[in-house]
Amino acid sequence: MAITSRITRGLWASRGMALIAVMGAGSIGCYVGGRLAAAGADVVLIGRQRLAGELAVHGLRLSDYHGVESVLRPDQFAFSTDAAAAARAALVLVTVKSAGTAGAAQELACVLRPDAVVLSLQNGIGNADTLRAALATQTVLAGMVPFNVVQRGEGAFHQGTEGALEVERHPSLAAFAAAFERAGLPLQQRDDLRPVQWAKLLLNLNNPINALSDLPLKTQLSQRAYRRCLALAQREGLALLAMAGIQPARLTRVAPQWIPRLLTLPDAWFRIVAARMLAIDPLARSSMWEDLQAQRKTEVDWINGEIVALARRLGQTAPVNAALVALVHAAEQGGRRQWSGAELWAALTRRYD
Q1: pTM of the model as a whole
Q2: Full 3-state SS string of 23-78
Q3: Is 30 buried (19+), middle (13-18) or exposed (0-12) by CB count in 10 A?
Q4: How many CA atoms within 13 Å lie on the side-chain side of 216?
Q5: Beta bridge partners of 142
Q6: Pairing of strands 60-64, 69-72
Q7: Beta strand segments in the chain, E
Q8: What is the phi/psi pair of residue 160, to 5°?
């Protein structure tokens, strides 16, 4: 049975602001939606019963790598387990895992107002297209969340890496830009988001490596053996993107083409470069690691699998990324989840023999 927090109707009736719904409130959804609510936006989070119960007891506790913290009591935000809670929303942020996009689109198609704006804040490349196929009258835009969020339990969500929200440019976003500014999550609008999505995907090729290392991101990336695995996966991806005529955007202080070379530097040198390249909190872990810990299906098919699919379209192969996909699928089925850097390197390079 669908459950909506007892204060939802009161919030909607008493506030004159446009309602923002977050469809698929997990780590990213609760963090982004919570930041918006903490800044005064009228927000309803739509997610699973497990989180509904957790947040009803503990509320939302949001923090970031700068040490900024926000706390919302359970009566300061709305949470529902039913997509119908988005019926009045002017803006819907879709943050479901990629495997759930088609299902979420069908649920939203039954309830959304025709003039709603739908913003995909998901990993991968084609989720906005999947949403558009089901939401013919709504404005559907692609977006990208560059930072990592760790779910720490008891309503606590922590932003562990830096970055600003990147979204497809559209006039309809003007009505919501101020709300994101107040929340400290300004929208960086781009005329063409696809190069940004590919650049984020190249960085996310580390997700299975982090998940299989069973280490925090900063610890894993401090070890050259793991970084060499990531460099191998990125070089494969970059070569295929070049063949396809796709130029990934620059999201960090270093251009994507240079990152694999920097990853293979000795540890001492890399620490110096990495400190200037991307801020990473010691608490940060990949969402794929969280999924394996929770025994959920991961998004590896929408990350490393995208490189494999691109290779197939070009009549090529992507053995490194295909190997990472296979290793994560094995881990999902109860297989090995703790690999040293040397062991993982051997497993990836073995495919070339």
Answers
A1: 0.88
A2: ECCCHHHHHHHHHHHHCCCEEEEECCHHHHHHHHHHCEEEEECCCCEEEECHHHCE
A3: buried
A4: 11
A5: 120
A6: antiparallel
A7: 19-23, 42-46, 60-64, 69-72, 78-80, 91-94, 117-121, 139-144, 149-153, 156-159, 165-168, 187-190
A8: -100, -10
Instruction: Read off the tokens for 322.
Output: 């295909």
Q: How many CA atoms lie within 13 A of 59 on its CB side?
A: 13
pLDDT tens, position by position, 282-337: 778 899 999 999 899 999 999 999 999 999 999 999 999 999 999 999 999 999 99
CA distances from 61 to 70, 238, 339 (A): 6, 38, 32
Distance CA 20, CA 236 (A): 39
- List Cβ neighbours of 256 (8 Å cut-off, separation of 6 or more): 199, 202, 234, 238, 248, 249, 250
Answer yes or no: is pLDDT of 276 > 70. Answer: no
- Identify which of 297, 315, 339, 146 has the alpha carbon closest to the alpha carbon of residue 240: 315
Indicate the DSSP class of residue 126. S
The Cα 351–Cα 353 span in angstroms is: 6
Say how far apart CA 152 and CA 249 lie, in whole Å.
Answer: 31
39 burial type by CB count under 10 A (0-12 exposed, 13-18 middle, 19+ buried): middle
What are 162-205's pLDDT values in tens digits? 889 999 999 999 999 999 999 999 999 999 999 999 999 999 99
The position carrying tokens 């063949």 is 243
- Who contacts 306 (Cβ-Cβ below 8 Å, separation ≥6)? 124, 125, 201
Q: What are phi and psi of 99, to 5 degrees?
A: -65, -20
Q: How far is CA 125 from CA 163, 202, 309, in A?
A: 18, 11, 11
Report the pLDDT value the prediction gives residue 14, as an integer from 0 to 100: 39
